[in-house]
Amino acid sequence: MAHSPHGGVLKDLHIRDAYKHDELLLESENLPSIVLTDRQLCDLELIMNGGFSPLEGFMNQSDYQSVVNDLRLTNGCLFSIPITLDVSESDINALDFAPNKRVVLRDPRDDAKLAILTIQDIYRPNKIEEAIKVFGDNDLAHPSVKYLHNNVKEYYVGGNVEAIQAPTHYDYISHRFTPAELRAHFKKLNWTRVVAFQTRNPMHRAHRELTVRAARIRQANVLIHPVVGLTKPGDIDHYTRVRVYQALMPKYPNGMATLGLLPLAMRMGGPREALWHAIIRKNFGATHFIIGRDHAGPGKNSKGVDFYGPYDAQVLVGKYKDELQIEVVPFQMMSYIPDSDEYMPIDEIPKGTQTLNISGTELRRRLRGGLHIPGWFSYPEVVKVLQETHPPRSKQGFTLFFTGYYNSGKDLIAKALQVILNQQGGRSVSLLLGEIVRSELSSELGFSRKARDQNIARIGFVSAELTKAGAAVIAAPIAPFADARAHARQTIEQYGGFYLIHVNSPLEYCISNDRKGIYKKAQSGEIKGFTGVDDPYEIPTDADIVVDPSEQSISDICHQIVLLLEKDGYIGER
Ligand code: PPS
Question: Is 303 within any annotated ligand binding site?
């Protein structure tokens, strides 16, 4: 039998409120609405489905204070993370919020009405106190402290909710279970002892060994329960991770393990978060919970020191183990022993034994370079999934972003490179000459600073989308302003390569070769605000390459660019 939920009763508000669904929906038509943030949406989903039992809504001031100070609700029940609904002062005034008023909570993705909240109180939190007591520090290097100070609104609105509907998901639905569904699933499978494993990272052989070992020690089955709500900024996206977990599941003995996805918004709160995670898993029907090294750790603070000690989480949860009623399975880091081809927790490995490890940073380096990832570290099926979303540079897109005066020769270089890259093959090549963009994307824009910035922002957006799709993009606007170029770099770089190429032909060269007589028109005042004549050109200080067609042939310039692409691994086989 699964253990009883936290606080004794599973607060599945969907089941509780199903009988009045139509009534709530009707009432909601005349109520003010709050559109939830992504974090609030995750929190509401787990409040409504009972994952956060015994909560039935967002915390009022006394529960909030009690959780912040003592890790308990006012009724004495353990709860370590404040679950609050932050609202701005302007929304509170505009919507006329006050105790006993009712408010609809809406899904930010599709505007669906999810619940009705009855306001109990409205209070202003002391954010510094919350940061220090909950996260142990007021350092903005902690992602939740940063979020608290930069994103969380000034007021918290406390009150219970009545459920209208669960948020709609379109991804991996068959792996999404409510606590009641997962409990029923375990019952159906005759699982009486279930050890849950929390993760926000891809899983490899070490994790499979660790979970099987935990199950063996406790004679239990395994629930792989990864977070698919919000994790640490910079983590691998949940789509990739779930495909990894799906690839890993067949590596367990048939019937040993189940994959369930948890729509949790993590706080990276280390020890307090570990306690919260244990409570949540208890609600989902697990009897055991694995806490490993640096559980829910946010990394280092602004002084370069880890926010929490590697086993602080195990210590804190151990302190409450008697009243928690979910057994914590503490685990040391697992290391691979090549001599015996097995994984073992580091505290069990005899001194002097050779071990192997591949860190997250090293894994990312290998993925980036298309380098070998050994079978002792991960399974080929898992590596394949990771390689698909982290293709080596030879399969990634890139943008060559040219900047320079009109008639500097940038269009000639861009067109020649289009031919060279087409000859190379392997990618579709997109050419965004200034004139093409001006007619196809920016025909209504003029040449004011604002209009030029907007034009470059559009080029940045389109180039980023094409780069993301693996194309080679050659963009060649004048792009006279450094800020707009930097913004384009920032937009594109997150999806692939970016090279700023300054075509540094002297203005006299551009003018003397101007067959169309555009400069003449600018000099005579027929065209106004012309770059280099009566409008500025900010010389790049951050160019990746500077070329000069007045001194170099187009072929030489193209070759210089090709050599750079080869050096960085974007073209050619390694
Ligand atoms: S920008 O600043 O990057 O948005 O400029 P861009 O999109 O590259 O547009 C340059 C083309 O527009 C013609 N043109 C002007 N350029 C600069 N200043 C003014 N006032 C101006 N008016 C028109 C210019 O001849 C460029 O033409 P192409 O044929 O694209 O080189």
Answer: no
